[in-house]
Amino acid sequence: MAGQPPPGSIRTRFAPSPTGALHLGNVRVAVFNWLFARRHEGQFILRVEDTDVERHRGEAEASIAADLKWLGLNWDEGPDTGGPCGPYRQSEAQELHREAVDRLQRKGAAYPCFCNEEELAQDRIVDESGGEVHRYPGRCRDLPAEGRAELRAERGSPAVRFRTPDDPVEILDEVRGPIHFNTDDIGDFILLRRDGRPTYNLAVVVDDIRMHISHVIRGAGHLSNTPKQVLLFQALGAPVPSFIHLPTVLAPEGGKLSKRSGASAVGELRAEGYHPHAVVNYVSLLGWSPPDDEEEVFAPEELARLVDVSRIGASDTTYDPDKLRWMSAQHIARMELDEVVGAVSDRVDRARFPLEGDTLRFAVDALRSRLSTFGEINEHLELLFPTPGAEWDAAREELRQDPKAREVLREVRDRLRDVEQWTPDELGRTVRAVGKELGARGPSLFHPVRLALTSQRSGPDLGKVLAALGPEEAIVRMNRALESSKL
Ligand code: GLU
After folding, report:
1. Is residue 62 part of a domain?
2. Which of 408, 417, 419 is nearest to 452 (CA)?
3. Measured from the CA of 229, which atom of ligand 1 is nearest?
4. 334 and 400 housed in the same domain
């Protein structure tokens, strides 16, 4: 068919159910699928698995798309982008799912099941009392045609079950190797419910086939679905994709990471101002280890070059929010100054911190090394704009005790008035020149100036602090220190 992907293409998919906001656990799955497709110059597909989700699906789909875009995980085909293998919303493909079931029924690989709730509930009781895993006992498996017709007349539309073969099924997980499943433990599972709605296992396989998915990458929680899906691929005469099951992520306090247990929503991380590349980088380390133990900070394109299935582990891994924060600091440190300015500009509380243009740029330059997230900017700006209070009183007292402070402050203030190039370098040089002239070195020079400007003895680079304050404010603060400490 025209527009179909050429045979042998690497095609991965992220298939979220739009039940709510993406959290770090889901995002890890998206990241690995995206990295794998990019590494192999294949296609990354977004498929929205909304069959069982009635409420808010539009909203949830939009928020998933926004989160993926923020993270830079662009998809080649998807509900809004379109593509040759649509529809990309599972709910819109139900006819295709039902057609596949018809085909299976014609081949005898699936059969109608008329059992009602009471019968199935009774089966469960019998099984559980025998201590066995529940599976369908096969009551409708071999009904003769007339028996089926009678039951249909009596009970209405049936469900449709897969006729699970007797032989064991082998799946090949690229992380764990071959795994055998006994089909007795699987039983004849439902493909279509009595109301005609397809089940997850059916829909996922039909969609993976029609989208030519070559690699299914998802969490290890889906391992138990995989044998059913492999049987369906085979019964539908389609090639079985490769499976890569990522290890389970545990919450910091133990238990599986989930929306309810410790997983941050991507939207929250974005609101707090985490660097999106740090999120991609961090989740890539939940299961994968880079080739060189020493280096773990990577831009997405570097990760796409490096991520390799042979270094994905099978053992559980634990989410560490402190490391995510550290990772964000590392990615912020790698940015150009103007990019950091752009990222924090809308977050600066202008009512407290009157910064624009150059002063904003110098303030960000002074503080950027302290940022783990862009949202922390206001907290750090307090270093440059301390609120008067106990600290200021202590600073004034300290200045009073320092016999050389008055001379240093006056001289620095006077020299600042003459500075033409109000830049961090020039300002740093000016202060050092005063120190040289007055024979004040190190702390006896810098402490009084810093105390006068920021009430602290240490802090960000002094030239940058002065540049950020601007000439007027810097001189006002020097004067205020001279006056209020009665120097
Ligand atoms: N919609 C499924 C989920 O959110 C994805 C299943 C799969 O990847 O096969 O878990």
Report:
1. no
2. 408
3. 9
4. no
